[in-house]
Amino acid sequence: MAIKKVAVIGAGVMGAGIAAQLANAGLEVELLDRVDPKNPADRDSISKTAIQKSLTAKPGAFMLDSNAAKVRPGNTEDNLDRLGDCDLIIEAVYEDPKLKSDIFKKIDAHRKPGAIVASNTSTIPLKDLIADQSDALKKDFMITHFFNPPRYMPLLELVTSEHNSPEAIAEVTRFMDEKMGKGVINCNDTPSFIGNRIGTYWIQTAINEAYNHGLTVEQADAIMGAPIGVPNTGVFGLADLVGLDIMPHITKSLNERLPANDDYVKGTIDHPVIDKMIADGFLGRKAKGGFYRRDKDTKQDFAIDLNTGELHPKTRPFMQAAENAKKGGFQALFETKDAGGEYAWDVLKKVLCYAAKHVHEVTDNVTGVDQAMKLGYNWQYGPFEMLDKIGVDYFINRLKAEGEEVPEFIQQAAGRTFYRVDAGHVQFLNKDGAYENVQRPEGVLLLSDVKLASKPVATNTSASVWNVGDGVLCLEFHSKANSLDPEIVSMINQACDLVEGSKGQYKGLVIHNEGADFSAGANLGLLLAAAKNKDYAAIEGMVKAGQDALKRLKYAPFPVVAAPTGKALGGGCEVLMNSRYVQAHSETYPGLVESGVGLLPGWGGTTELITRTLQMEKEGKIPAGQGLQKAFQAILMGQVGLSAFQAKDIGVLRATDGVTMNKSRLLADAKAKALELAVDFKPELPHDLQLGGPAAHAALNAAIDGLYAKGFVTPYDVVVANEIGRVMTGDGAGAPKPVTQDQVRALELQSFMRLIKDDRTLARIENMLKTGRPLREPANGKSADELRAEVESASASAVKPAFDAVADKKAPVNDNNNPVRKARKAHAPKP
Fold first, then answer.
1. Contact 777, 770 (CB under 8 A)
2. Is there a contact between 419 and 426 (Cβ–Cβ < 8 Å)?
3. Which residues contact 8 (CB under 8 A, 6 or more apart)?
4. Please, are residues 565 and 586 in contact by the beta-carbon 8 Å criterion?
5. Is 637 exposed, middle or buried (0-12, 13-18, 19+ CB in 10 A)?
6. β-strands 658-660, 588-591: how paired?
7. Are 755 and 829 in contact (CB under 8 A)?
8. d(CA 721, CA 453)
9. How far, in Å, CA of 237 to CA of 469, rounded?
10. Entry pTM
11. Strand partners, 510
12. Contacts by 31-36 with C-beta closer than 8 Å and gap 24+?
């Protein structure tokens, strides 16, 4: 039975988030909740409000706002008949066994035969949920535990029973994996399953040990973050993120269901300051703040004293243990003889031992625990991968030296590792002490597996080329933040040489990496250093080399398929745009953001975007005359697609590019596309562009004048906009007669070099490297922060009237007496 329509019962934060992700997957969704007794006139008000909140949520629940139309609001008094044509019904109501039992009986009475009923519970065992249900419901009932927020957290814990058929389990697994983009982990029916059993024990232990070692929340988070491969929120920041009121609920459930000698139960300690925070409504980011708080008036950040409850200005503490971990890894972290090193050891020894004691209680093997912690808590390494990184023997010897018990399963790994590669297969240590092959689902190909089992075809410090099988090579970036530098440019050319010179051995190239982000863009540090030294010849050479390498990808005589996830900014976006095809993870965020550092896309991005938007105009996908406007606005405003689908609307991805919901399937999908394209492949050919020339450039300038007068752009934005307009209109390349794409690329290079010589561009680059935020000087009396917020939020509603005024000849084009034009001239590029 294929799942084609789904209902969600319960429109709270989780239910609404699940419904939104179902809509993102392209399904029609029924979202039902109770009738609000305070608003009986609008019987669907709860579910309607939930949909509206999902539209305005930050981060957004819908990948496209239009997806909200796929979710139909309703209520559980009038609309249970809608369940009759649903293939899957997900319950997401309050964690109350009686309430859930009543809901399941109502669902059972209205569902069609064979429809799967799933609970999103994380605290109530499956056996308890189905205890008083019909035999028919037991057969079709499962637990599908999503992590919050459902769109962004890839973990899906699946709990089944002996009543379920293998076919039903397989269909739900396939659906959650391929359609919903989830990493499905099969869990045993034990308290809190895997993620929250191990994860909340880590949180509990880290908080307790912070008290024991006398650390501040900032010091604890500095250790329980990057040094151990955990997001920078650390533990107290994570508690603020998920909500301080969540932990007591999970703790109560676990303490009721676990034996008294379980380390979780023994480690449950009341902390008066934290209890008071919860009682006073300081629940974290969703409320008035938690361990960290911000003064709304002064914008100053504070942190709480764990012992007194008083606030102090938030600090960024220097922790020697954290510094040592950067170079020496876990052992260097633990060997640092200070509170930070001791804290790290005391937390992790307990957490890793706890995972080892219970791994085969909660799931089948170590891969389930490791994947659950990576997918559900964003850990870089799962507990057993972490033990391998630490060194199993080091860990055992240190436990013994301290008189600690060594869990039997860890002792089994003495002299070995929990993972190894044998005969090209990644293997894990099973509970009997033998190794088994890691089994990936069909259609999953991980570059990390390829790297463990083989050597690169070519490599340098910033990039490598790997053979991913069937005649397809994979170009991997691995510089810091995957930023593009001369080494990556060199490897792009080397990858092309490998395919072209292989005499048919290699059929195509995939560009992919498994970093959090595909690429943060060009290496601004290198660019800034050269600009400060006024080594403009080197800069021009770097830009031209990058432009030529990406042009080579674009016109390659073999298929080039980019497979990105996360941010693909600036030059990273230009790599995508110059690939023949993009197979993007749904959570890909591409954009040409160079204007934020006072530059414009110089590796063919400007040329390619105007080529695309003019084609969209020609095909009737956007109104006639708006192609130039669309491309100009996207680059000037540095628009970034907040999903792969939204990126298609901007134009940085094509409507024909593919989208993969599950990141673990991305490389396999891209490889399959490269092989598909390789059959009778015909390379793309350059073509001329019909651009407007000086008149169109003047019209764009007039539109910018209007935006400048309204305070939407700063004086130096005007300068950058002038250069963007010059390239996009072909002003200087002979337009309005047709110009070649190479001529437009030449204009890109010229404008880029003019801007990089300006001190205001260098100031923007320095600020971006220092703060990660764009620097924009005040305009029209607005502060830089106010202006930045306005520029980032400025949309077509603000920009379009200015362009329309030009089109209607209501705005001056060549009026040199215009005061705004005079302001433009005052901020012209410096010689």
1. no
2. yes
3. 15, 16, 18, 19, 22, 29, 30, 31, 32, 89, 90, 92
4. no
5. buried
6. unpaired
7. yes
8. 49
9. 42
10. 0.92
11. 474, 561
12. 31/7, 31/71, 31/72, 31/73, 31/74, 32/7, 32/8, 32/73, 32/74, 32/75, 32/76, 32/79, 32/80, 32/82, 33/9, 33/75, 33/76, 34/75, 34/76, 34/77, 35/75, 35/76, 35/77, 35/78
Q: At which residue do the structure tokens 């902390």 appear? A: 271
Which amino acid does the sequence have at 192? S
**Helix extents (H) in 378-446:** 383-390, 392-401, 408-412
Residue 55 exposed, middle or buried by CB count within 10 Å (0-12, 13-18, 19+): middle
- For residue 361 the two structure tokens come to 């209680």
**Burial class (CB within 10 angstroms; exposed 0-12, middle 13-18, buried 19+) of 19:** buried
Lookup result for tokens 């991997």: 476
* pLDDT for 791: 44
User: Alpha carbon 50 to chain centroid distance?
Assistant: 23
DSSP annotation of 478: -
Residue found by looking up tokens 């934290």 in the block? 274
Tokens of 420: 């190894």
* Residue 3 to residue 172: CA distance in whole angstroms: 8
Q: Supply φ then ψ for residue 446, to 5 degrees.
A: -105, 130
The secondary element (H helix, E strand) that includes residue 311 is strand 311-313
* Alpha-carbon span 448 to 370, nearest angstrom: 15
Instruction: Name residues whose C-beta falls within 8 Å of residue 535's C-beta, 6 or more positions apart in sequence.
Output: none
SS3 for 288? coil
> Residue 446 has which token pair?
């991980």
Compute CA 247 distance to the chain's CA centroid, rounded to the nearest angstrom: 25
Shortest CA distance to 817 belongs to which of 705, 734, 658, 689?
705
Q: Do residues 572 and 632 touch, judged by C-beta distance below 8 A?
A: no
Q: What is the mean pLDDT of each run of 10 residues along the chain (831 residues)?
A: 94 96 98 95 96 93 97 97 97 94 97 97 93 96 96 97 96 98 97 96 97 97 96 94 89 93 94 94 90 91 95 95 95 96 98 98 97 96 98 98 97 97 92 95 95 95 98 97 97 98 96 97 96 96 97 98 98 98 98 96 97 93 90 94 96 97 98 97 94 92 85 86 95 93 97 96 94 69 47 44 46 43 53 40
For 400, the token pair is: 């013994």
Tokens describing residue 294: 């911000």
Q: How many helices (H) and strands (E) does the chain have?
A: 34, 23
Domain architecture of the chain: domains with CATH = 5-186 (3.40.50.720), 195-419 (1.10.1040.50), 447-678 (3.90.226.10), 693-826 (no CATH)
Give the chain's length: 831
What is the distance between the alpha carbons of residues 558 and 676, in angstroms, rounded to a whole number?
11
Q: Which helix (H) or strand (E) holds 660?
A: strand 658-660
Q: Note whether 510 and 667 are within 8 A (CB).
A: yes
- The angle, 0 to 180 degrees and rounded to 10, between the axes of the packed helices 605-618 and 627-636 is 150
Paired with 420 in beta bridges are: 427
CB 254 within 8 A of CB 264: yes
Q: Amino acid identity of 686?
A: P
Instruction: Report the 10 Å Cβ neighbour count for 730.
Output: 26
Non-local (6+) Cβ contacts of 634 within 8 A are 591, 592, 609, 650, 651, 652
pLDDT at 238: 94
Question: Which residue in this structure is represented by tokens 């414009």?
Answer: 600
* Sign (positive or negative) of CA dihedral 790, 606, 632, 531: positive
Three-state SS annotation for 188-243: CCCCCCCHHHHHHHHHHHHHHHHHHCCCCHHHHHHHCCHHHCCCCCCCHHHHHHHC
The pair of structure tokens assigned to 626 is 């708006």
